Amino acid sequence: MSGIAERLGAIRAGLPERVTLVAVSKTQPPEAVREAYAAGQRHFGENYAQEWRAKADALADLPELVWHFIGGLQTNKVKYLAGRVGYVHTLDRLELARELSRRFAARGASVRVLLEVNVAGEAAKAGCAPAEVGALADAVRGLPALELRGLMCIPPAEGDPRPHFAALRRMNEALGLPDLSMGMSGDYLAAVAEGATLVRVGTAIFGARAPRAG
C-alpha cells in the first residue's frame, strides 16, 4: 500500500465542506492518480502542459476527473488545454486571457479561471500586480468562454503566509468573486483559516515528488 488513500482521508477530515481539495499530481505517474481517484478524489492539479496532456490521455476513462492547470502557462501551450481542463489558476495577463478565450470558444467549451496575483511583489514570481487586478478582472469578464471565479496566490517561501492570504481575500471580496485558490502542503491550513475555497496539495498526499524528466 502506498498510503495515498490514508493521507487523502486524513487531509479531507480537516477541511470544511466549502473547500475543494486539488490533489497536485505533477510528476506523479498515472497510477498514482488512479489510486487517489479510487479513494474518492476528483480534482487534480498539473503544472506542465505536455506532461499533463500525456497523463490526461492515459486517464481519459475516468469520467468524473476534473483537471486544474496550476502552473505558469505560455500562450502557445493553451491549445493543449482547450476543452480538456476545468480550471486555470494562473491567468496573469490579458494576452493569455484572450488566447484562452479564443481556444476554448473554438472548441465550444468554457473554462473557470482564477487570476494569479503576485501578492508580495516578488521579482522572480509570476502573477499580476495587486494594483492591476481590477482592470484584468474587468477585461476577463468581457471575454467569451471564460468564467472568472476568483484569485490565486503563492506567498513568499519565508515568513508567515497569513498576511498574504488575508490580503488576497480582501482583494477577492472587493471583486465579489466566490473562489480563493491558496495554500499548499505546508500552509494549506493557514490558507483555509483565511478563507481559501481551493487548496493545492501534492506532497502531503503523494509523498516526495520524483525528479521531473527532461
TrEMBL record:
Residues 4-209 form the Alanine racemase N-terminal domain. Gene3D superfamilies: Alanine racemase. Keywords: Pyridoxal phosphate. PROSITE patterns: UPF0001. It comes from the Bacteria. The keyword Cytoplasm does not apply. The modification N6-(pyridoxal phosphate)lysine is found at K26. InterPro entries: Ala_racemase_N (IPR001608), PLP-binding_barrel (IPR029066), PyrdxlP_homeostasis (IPR011078). This is Pyridoxal phosphate homeostasis protein.
